[in-house]
Amino acid sequence: MRCRRNSLTPLAAVAVGLLAGILGTVCLDAVHYLKYRRAGGTDSPLAWEFAPIESWEKAPDPGQVAKRLIEGFTQRRLPDGSAWLVSTVAHWSYGAAAGAAYGVLAGSLSRPSPVYGVPFGAAVFSGDYVVLPLAGLYKPIWQYDTEIVSWDLGAHLLYGVGTATAFWLLTGSRATKSARSAGGFRQDHF
Fold first, then answer.
1. Residue 52: which of 93, 95, 83, 78 has the closest Cα?
2. pTM
């Protein structure tokens, strides 16, 4: 039996996935920024993205999760002054790490596709609505307004498609070059 294989190494799939996840996070944030602007916000995208967070009470959910992990590990309370840095790093790290996981999955396929971003984004969204209520940071999904859940789902679907498209684009020229130089995709026997 013959199977077409992608020539991407696992390490390359993780590295490209990390970068793709960062680009996907930009897509997710674009949806949230659009919602902010529609509600009357006037900050520029960069000012909005990197707005100061003065206390842990005002920190977004990624920062809250990171705070719990860091405080649980170190057994020390984080000062309010670290809320912005921890929250920002956690947000971008979560997007990049999920992209790395996508990279491993998509990199094992013979032909990654941007279309795979839809179920990936839906899985990340679903995971958030399972893990974060268990952590006490979210309410159960049925307790949210439909509009809030719709915006969040849309943002996560765009994250998934953005990540998958970036992965596809970043690996596409390499796969094409390899295929041309080898006269086609590498064939393996199982």
1. 83
2. 0.84
